[in-house]
Write a structure and sequence with these properties.
Number of strands: 0
Helix content: over 70%
Organism: Cucumis melo var. makuwa
Largest sheet: none
Strand content: under 5%
Protein name: Girdin-like
């Protein structure tokens, strides 16, 4: 009986080991599925990270170009401001000269009207010269 008892005990041990193996096999499948899921998530995160890196590089390139454009526009604006300042100075100078011309014109107007009484005498004198020249041409 000893043998039968040992055989029975061994069968119980084997059955117990089969149960434990089945449990371990289930745990292994669960852990394997979990590891596969983590691997899939890691791959998805790596792909997402690559896309984010590419988007960042694209945005950085756009930023650098926009900064260059902004710097050029700022320089152009400064040149424009300088030209406006020069134009203002030129207009001030022209305005001063125009005021000087206006004063000269006013003086000429005053002089012209002061000479108007003599204009009739000058007109008669010129007509007389023209008549004399006309007579002179007839004789020659």
């Amino acid at each position: 009986m000893d043998l039968e008892a040992q055989n029975h005990s061994l069968r119980q041990t084997v059955d117990s080991l089969h149960l434990k193996m089945a449990e371990c096999s289930e745990e292994y499948e669960i852990l394997k599925n979990y590891a596969d899921s983590l691997h899939y998530q890691l791959t998805a995160l790596q792909n997402s990270s690559r896309r984010i890196t590419q988007e960042y590089e694209s945005l950085n390139t756009d930023y650098v170009q926009m900064k260059v454009d902004y710097d050029l526009q700022t320089r152009d604006f400064q040149v424009l401001v300088e030209r406006v300042d020069q134009t203002i100075e030129f207009l001030r100078m022209v305005s001063k000269r125009a005021n000087g011309f206006a004063e000269c014109a006013a003086d000429l107007r005053v002089n012209f009207f002061s000479m108007q009484p003599h204009a009739d005498d000058l007109n008669r004198f010129l007509k007389m010269i023209c008549r004399e020249l006309g007579h002179f041409r007839r004789f020659h």
